[in-house]
Design goal:
alpha/beta, Aspartate Aminotransferase, domain 1, Aspartate Aminotransferase, domain 2, seven-stranded mixed sheet, three-stranded antiparallel sheet, globular
């Protein structure tokens, strides 16, 4: 199996797994207990917290969560005022904003997937409490101007929430943001844990009640195993940053060179994370393509919307027709993808796709 679905989840790093195993096999104490074993577990959690924090702005604190979905829900529901967000945001944002009962504006994006900053200035006005935008889009990989959006938000007294799930450790998180949501399993860590970074001085209303173990008020018992895996995964993103980035750039160039004619890249190609290649071929039967290539794991859109029957809201926000959106696939690759397996996968995709017109 050739795995090309890195935006859905990344392979677990062996060192992250090794860090988790002791806490799964023999060290089972509750990190919120006051006895010696509890204190040992808490120490492991705090080491992980520092490792994750090293990739985030200073002067803030990290609250571990069950994942980025919880973190985004908490950030949105825990802040007051009107909300401004983008049409290409993750469902965890859009499906939380729209039924919130608060005034909201969903900004369109251009055909390249980027927000228009003049439109943002017109929408972000006094009374806006929160601006929410994704650093790197999970479906098309484009990098939004988060620093500029944060500046616009702050001019009217609003907070800036950055969904950094796909960019964490790969694209610098601007130091001017106020809230940052991240997830371990998108950086070769374990599933089931994420975090919300909260700038010092910001108070959020709790999302969940029942103990408030995580400052500033997140309730629930933390898993030292998941925290340890997350921490080591974050440390590896620092240690391997240049190596990983160079490898991804090589893979991006290889994939583009081998695709051949007839394919169009969805979204900007210059302002983009290169581990995401979202492409379309008019008339492509994606379901048939995936059926014919069962030994290659790739996606027709966000894993979070799979099975919904809907075409990608992100691709439709670019102005693609329903047919164009449904003839698009997403290829995601990274640290553990070899050049040979990507080359063979691209050749197979191009050949099988061309056979649909034979």
């Amino acid at each position: 199996m050739t795995y090309l679905d890195y935006q859905a989840t990344t392979p677990l790093a062996p060192k992250a797994l090794a860090a988790m195993l002791p806490w799964l096999e023999s060290q089972h104490a509750n990190p919120h207990s006051p006895h010696r074993e509890g204190r040992r577990a808490k120490a492991a959690v705090e080491i992980a917290r520092d490792q994750v924090a090293a990739l985030l702005p200073s002067r803030g604190r990290i609250a571990f969560t069950s994942g980025a979905t919880e973190a985004l829900n908490w950030a949105i529901k825990g802040t007051p005022g009107a909300i401004v967000t983008l049409a290409t945001e993750h469902a965890a944002v859009l499906d939380t904003v729209q039924p919130s009962g608060r005034p909201f504006t969903i900004l369109p994006v251009a055909a390249n997937g980027l927000v228009d900053l003049d439109a943002a200035r017109a929408a972000i006005t006094p009374g806006t409490g929160l601006v929410a935008a994704m650093l790197v889009n999970n479906e098309i990989g484009v990098i939004q101007p988060i620093a500029a959006l944060a500046d616009i938000a702050h001019r009217v007294g609003a907070l800036m929430l950055c969904d950094a799930v796909q960019g964490f450790g790969r694209v610098l998180v601007p130091h001017t943001v106020d809230l940052v949501a991240i997830s371990a399993h998108k950086i070769h860590g374990p599933k089931g844990i994420g975090a919300l970074w909260i700038r010092d001085g910001i108070d959020l209303a709790p999302l969940m009640h029942g103990g408030g173990q995580e400052a500033p008020g997140r309730s629930g018992t933390l898993s030292p195993a998941l925290c340890a895996g997350f921490g080591v995964a974050a440390q590896l993103m620092i240690d391997r940053h240049d190596q990983d980035a160079a490898h991804v750039d090589r893979l991006w160039g290889l994939a583009r060179d081998r695709l051949g004619p007839g394919w169009t890249i969805n979204g900007a190609t210059d302002t983009r994370y290169h581990g995401n290649l979202n492409i379309r071929r008019d008339g492509l039967d994606v379901n048939r393509l995936m059926s014919d290539l069962r030994d290659i794991a790739f996606s027709a859109g966000s894993a979070c919307a799979s099975g919904s029957g809907r075409s990608s809201h992100v691709l439709r926000a670019l102005g693609l027709t329903e047919a164009q959106a449904r003839s698009s696939i997403r290829l995601g690759f990274g640290r553990y993808t070899t050049e040979d397996e990507l080359r063979h996968a691209i050749d197979a995709i191009a050949t099988v796709a061309a056979d649909q017109w034979a």
